[in-house]
Design brief:
Pfam families: CarS-like. Catalyzes the formation of CDP-2,3-bis-(O-geranylgeranyl)-sn-glycerol (CDP-archaeol) from 2,3-bis-(O-geranylgeranyl)-sn-glycerol 1-phosphate (DGGGP) and CTP. This reaction is the third ether-bond-formation step in the biosynthesis of archaeal membrane lipids. It is a multi-pass membrane protein. This is CDP-archaeol synthase. The structure is a single chain. By secondary structure, this protein is mostly helical. The protein has one domain. The chain is 70% helix and 2% strand. It is built from six helices and two strands; from the N terminus they run H-E-E-H-H-H-H-H. The chain binds cytidine-5'-triphosphate, potassium ion (K) and magnesium ion. Cytidine-5'-triphosphate (CTP) binds next to helix 1, helix 2 and helix 3.
């Protein structure tokens, strides 16, 4: 059955999905790279800020704690055993997502792409790959129990779709400068 897999994948990844969107709303202020350049281009660029990263990470962690509070009734309502998040796992998912996005900006600058330029596939999966890697390191037993191979497949298929929909939506609402 695909329903429980989708429910579990979406629920377990929410603390990794929300940080990048929170960063878009909170962004601004000092860039992480302090304006520094490396090999003729910015290290990261003005789109990766301390404030966006901190607020994004915090939002993901707070969301995970909120999900913990409603996990039991939500599980009962849909008949799926939804997982709760220990603090280290919550932090790994949220901060890992932010780091994946920052790493992608580093690669974009190295490949001559200006701030805001699209980098298909990398844009849609950077944050998921690093968030998953981080949570598997930080809370291995939990990650192995939640992210079974079939849940992982659902995450890798579902994330690009959600990413495109959210970013086109944020662009249409005037919250984002580009629809990706
Ligand atoms: N943002 C931030 N800090 C982050 C990530 C995002 O402040 N760590 C904010 C910035 O205002 C950024 C906006 O969210 O401009 C959109 O994020 P994103 O699309 O990831 O950045 P881009 O501006 O497109 O820059 P890049 O080309 O480096 O991805
Ligand atoms: K990005
Ligand atoms: Mg962008």
């Amino acid at each position: 059955m695909i329903g429980p897999l989708v429910a579990t994948a979406f629920w377990a990844m929410l603390p990794a999905y929300v940080p990048n969107n929170a960063a878009v709303l909170a962004g601004g202020g000092r860039p992480i790279d302090g304006g520094r350049e490396w090999r003729g281009a910015r290290l990261l660029g003005d789109g990766k800020t301390w404030r966006g990263t901190a607020v994004g990470t915090l939002t993901g962690v707070v969301l995970a704690l909120a999900l913990n509070a409603v996990a039991a009734p939500a599980s009962a309502a849909i008949g799926v055993d939804l997982p709760t998040f220990a603090l280290p796992a919550a932090f790994a998912l949220a901060f890992g997502a932010m780091c994946g996005d920052i790493g992608a900006s580093f690669l974009k600058r190295r490949s001559g792409r200006e701030r805001g330029a699209a980098f298909p596939v990398l844009d849609q999966l950077d944050f998921v790959v690093v968030a998953l890697a981080a949570v598997f390191v930080v809370d291995t037993d939990w990650a192995l129990a939640v992210f079974t191979p079939s849940v992982l497949v659902v995450v890798l298929v579902m994330t690009p779709v959600l990413h495109v929909v959210t970013n086109v939506g944020a662009y249409a609402l005037g919250l984002k400068n580009e629809p990706w």
